[in-house]
Design a protein that fits this description.
alpha+beta; High-Potential Iron-Sulfur Protein, Chain A; extended; binds iron/sulfur cluster; 4 iron, 4 sulfur cluster binding
Length: 125
């Protein structure tokens, strides 16, 4: 009897657990958010390589190929609403090579992503 009760309890808890997990797994549908889309990868232009985010200059400037990876504790100004369009593509130092990559006059060891950012960003005129 005791063993049967425990098994019953176990099954009930399992059902509750799976229901809870499926609710959290489907969170985006429940609260109406779009699931995160895969970012489209644009090939790096022939003969080029991306600037390493570990490059000392890149690190000093807080550079990331994806501006969303910015350390907002170090660079809180990047989180301000008026900064959302501050990406390499809109930077005065940037020269576009294709739809995903370009050259930066400051980080010259490779190419930078259109959607990158560093603290040397300045508005393209
Ligand atoms: S200077 Fe401009 S183009 Fe170069 S990495 Fe920084 S934001 Fe991007």
């Amino acid at each position: 009897m005791m063993e049967q009760f425990s098994r019953k309890q176990f099954v009930k808890r399992l059902v509750v657990l799976f229901t809870t997990l499926s609710l959290f797994g489907g969170e985006s549908e429940i609260i109406g958010k779009e699931p995160k889309k895969e970012e489209k990868l644009i090939p790096i232009p022939d003969g080029e390589k991306p600037v390493s985010e570990n490059d000392p200059t890149a690190q000093a400037l807080g550079f990331h190929h994806n501006a969303k990876d910015t350390d907002f504790i170090l660079f809180p100004e990047r989180k301000l609403p008026q900064s959302k369009n501050q990406v390499c593509l809109q930077c005065a130092q940037f020269t576009k090579l294709n739809d995903g990559w370009g050259k930066c006059t400051i980080l010259t060891s490779g190419v930078v992503s259109n959607m990158g950012w560093c603290s040397a960003w300045s508005k393209k005129s």
